[in-house]
Specification:
By secondary structure, this protein is an all-alpha fold. The chain is about 75% helix and about 0% strand. It has a single domain, classed as MetI-like (MetI-like fold), CATH 1.10.3720.10. It contains ten helices and no strands. The longest helix has about 35 residues. The two termini are about 50 Å apart.
Length: about 270
């Protein structure tokens, strides 16, 4: 028996309602932020915008400048890598101590008071670290240790340590935990249970997220350079202030290449661990 297809989408009324509700909620936010994109196309904006974009052509390719860009690019990668390494030093111990599945006292169903309190304190510490943007940490450390890459490394380490610790714990607790519980119940230590029970099944996801955060750290290190934390961002800030559009264009192209390489490295690691 053939039934005729409905001429009207039966869910159209619900879709219209939710779209309207979203617009009603979004409109006050747009008003509060003074969001006026049409200003970009106004008569007063077109001229400066076109002149700004025209200054990017051609990109600067002088040998001395390219050597400077190569040096600052390497410094940017070094800042991001050192920052992520220190973030792992924070995140890995915090993850092992704050993951409920790895608690021996939780095998009976309810965690003992002291481990539960320690776990909660570590969770709050991770919240504090990731709640403060790396740009704010960089401003603090620039005043403590002075201008240069050290401030950028420490800023990335603190913020990303909180991010990595939180996400690592979520990944480990959302996976299959029976093997880990069996190992702990049979006398294995926390590290052994983690290495043989949780790590094998979560290694690909943990690695992928870590490499993604390293890619984010590269972007962050460029932004941190605008507050004096060194690297490619500081040179980009200098060129922008000097209205050297060609130099800015060259550094932006290098930055795009850096992010593309990080993305390829992440894809290669995911395939290797699959």
């Amino acid at each position: 028996m053939n039934t005729a297809a409905p001429r009207r989408d039966p869910a159209w009324l619900a879709r219209v309602f939710w779209i309207g509700a979203a617009l009603v909620l979004l409109w006050p936010m747009l008003v509060a932020t003074e969001f006026r994109p049409w200003v970009l196309f106004g008569a007063d904006s077109r001229g400066p915008t076109l002149r700004f974009l025209a200054a990017f052509i051609p990109p600067a390719v002088g040998s001395e400048f390219l050597w400077l860009v190569a040096r600052e690019t390497w410094r940017t990668v070094a800042i991001a890598t050192a920052g992520i390494t220190l973030a792992l030093v924070i995140a890995i111990p915090a993850t092992l101590m704050s993951t409920r599945v790895l608690s021996v006292s939780a095998l009976s169903g309810r965690m003992a008071p002291v481990p539960a309190a320690l776990r909660q304190l570590l969770r709050w510490l991770l919240v504090l670290l990731r709640s403060v943007p790396e740009l704010v940490w960089a401003l603090v450390f620039v005043r403590v240790v002075g201008l240069g890459p050290t401030a950028g490394v420490l800023a990335i380490a603190l913020t990303y340590g909180g991010m990595l610790g939180k996400v690592y714990a979520d990944i480990l607790e959302s996976g299959e935990t029976q093997a880990t519980r069996n190992l702990l119940a049979n006398g294995s230590g926390r590290l052994q249970a983690f290495a043989y029970g949780m790590l094998p099944q979560n290694a690909a996801e943990l690695t992928s997220y870590t490499v993604y955060r390293w890619e984010c750290a590269i972007r962050s290190s460029v932004v941190l350079g605008f507050v004096g934390a060194g690297g490619l961002g500081q040179q980009l800030d200098n060129s922008t202030k000097m209205f050297a559009g060609g130099e800015v264009a060259t550094m932006l192209l290098v930055f795009v290449a850096l992010v593309a390489l990080a993305d390829r490295a992440s894809a290669w690691l995911r395939r290797a661990l699959a």
